[in-house]
Design goal:
This protein is mainly β and 507 residues long. It contains six helices and 31 strands. It is flat and about 140 Å long.
């Protein structure tokens, strides 16, 4: 007689799920009694041994105990760990024969002297120079491998300066010097935006060649702009005559040789009779523009990156150095009068703002911009933001209201030139590529246009008010266009320089 066994759908689904999970489910037998069944359908009574027994949990294996206990044991540190305490004690207890006072064999003494002499000849420096070099590396820390050597084969003293005049006569028939502006040329004071309107140049009208290597910076004679000062990577500075309308008169007038390495920056004083040059040979030199005489040589054994005259005194200038400091010098005595030491990386730019230079703005590789009161070694304002990049070039707008910085994220950022020095987020100038290069930038004398170089050798012109890119020129080959200046008198003359060793005149 067949038994009538009934299982509802809900119970069947529950037991099926339990069987899929654990391999055991309850099912009715022939009499309708629920019994547990395994994988092969056996009940607990008829199932093979250990068929339905739950799996035993494995105990976690405990880590093996160290064979030897101790803070200096190899079991804890491995074979590349520091010396053990016992090894350090044995090393400290060891005394060499020389320290014990035991006389060395004559052959050993001769060999030691021979090795010391070979090392001295290879290094080319004495112990005092080695100590000074070690001190330089300690001060400059991680930047020391990027900087040129201060000691060694290079002499610590500055090279002997020399100069050469390339013009016809140094004084004309009236006794006027060659640096004086031509008759009829009037000077324009910087910041007079209402003097004349400026226009974007259309073409290159002249090329100045004479440097054996690239040209890193160019500066125009203050007020009149009839002379152009250039800083070359060949260690030379040159003054060019650019004010004449006759192309044959546009030529180099005097060459100044006084640095054994590339010249990083140059700067005229307020009347153009003197200028400063700083070089990677770690020296700053003050020159007489007319005669080429060196009036002073200054160094603090650091690489100077930027120089600026103090606007209220021609006998005081400041230098931004590789040891993260801005140093103020007295040109007459050569003494350091003040140090501004709050940057964390080499200083790139120095800009005087507010009331013709009562405050000083500096930028550095630490991605910070600091504002200082003159002659006070503590900054009055920090400008720093996680989104900021380093600004290796900065310039002040002719109105004095704004200052523009060449940011290394391929844009020009604008800040207030006084009061709060706030970032003007709506004023951004884009389109050029400057990442990795200290490309200079400048304003037109009326403040309507902004000019910048480019890492690809191009020259860019923007409208200051609406931020629109107006013109782009292919200016230089074989490297970036690193320098540009706008003529203070002629409304549409712009000069540019690059690492191809050429200075171009645009009109």
């Amino acid at each position: 007689m067949e038994s009538n066994v009934f299982v509802d759908d809900l119970s069947f689904q529950q037991e099926r799920t339990a069987f899929q999970r654990a391999g055991i489910a309850r099912a009715p037998d022939a009499h309708g009694t629920l019994i547990e069944r395994g994988t092969y359908g056996h009940s607990e009574q008829h199932a093979p041994k250990n068929m339905l027994a739950p799996a035993k949990k494995r105990k976690k294996s405990e880590p093996d105990e160290p064979l030897v206990y101790g803070s200096d044991d190899e079991v804890e540190y491995g074979i590349w760990g520091p010396p053990t305490k016992e090894e350090r004690e044995r090393q400290s207890d060891q005394i060499t024969d020389l320290a014990k006072g035991v006389e060395l064999d004559p052959l050993q003494v001769a060999e030691r002297a021979h090795v010391a002499e070979i090392r001295r000849r290879k290094s080319g420096k004495d112990d005092s120079a080695s100590e000074a070099q070690d001190f330089d590396r300690m001060v400059e820390r991680k930047m020391s491998h990027l900087l040129p050597p201060r000691f060694g084969d290079e002499e610590p003293a500055a090279m002997e300066p020399s100069t050469k005049f390339h013009g016809d006569v140094e004084h004309d028939y009236r006794g006027r010097s060659w640096i004086e502006p031509p008759a009829g040329v009037r000077g324009v004071e910087w910041g007079d935006v209402q003097d004349h309107a400026c226009f974007v140049p259309k073409k290159c009208i002249h090329r100045f060649t004479g440097h054996n290597k690239g040209v890193h910076r160019i500066r125009l004679f203050p007020g009149t702009g009839h002379l152009l000062l250039s800083a070359g990577l060949d260690g030379k500075c040159k003054v060019w005559s650019v004010g004449s309308s006759d192309p044959t008169q546009r030529r180099v007038m005097r060459t100044y040789v006084g640095h054994s390495a590339a010249v990083r920056d140059v700067q005229f004083n307020h009347n153009g009779t003197k200028f400063l040059s700083c070089s990677f040979d770690r020296f700053v030199r003050l020159w007489n523009t007319e005669t080429g005489e060196v009036l002073g040589t200054y160094t603090n054994r650091r690489v100077p990156y930027v120089v600026q005259f103090y606007p209220h005194d021609n006998n005081t200038f400041v230098v931004g150095c590789s040891d993260n400091k801005v140093v103020a010098y007295d040109a007459t005595t050569g003494d350091i009068t003040q140090e501004y030491n709050h940057h964390l990386a080499p200083v790139n730019t120095i800009t005087f703002v507010e009331d013709n230079g009562t405050k000083m703005v500096t930028s550095s590789d630490d991605k910070k911009v600091l504002v200082w009161e003159w002659d006070i070694g503590v900054p009055i304002k920090y400008i720093s933001d996680p989104s900021m990049h380093s600004m290796p070039a900065m310039t002040l707008h002719p109105s004095g209201q704004y200052m523009a910085g060449q940011s290394l994220d391929n844009q020009i950022c604008v800040y207030q030139g006084r009061h709060k020095f706030a970032l003007q987020r709506k004023k951004k100038y884009l389109g050029h590529q400057v990442a990795g290069y200290a490309c200079d930038l400048c304003f037109s004398p009326d403040g309507q246009f902004l000019v910048s170089g480019d890492s690809n050798g191009k020259l860019y012109f923007w409208n200051w008010r609406n931020h629109r890119l107006l013109q782009t020129y292919r200016a230089h080959d074989d490297g970036p266009s690193v320098g540009c200046v706008w003529h203070p008198v002629d409304p549409s003359i712009v000069f540019s320089c690059g690492w191809d060793g050429v200075i171009k005149m645009w009109q």
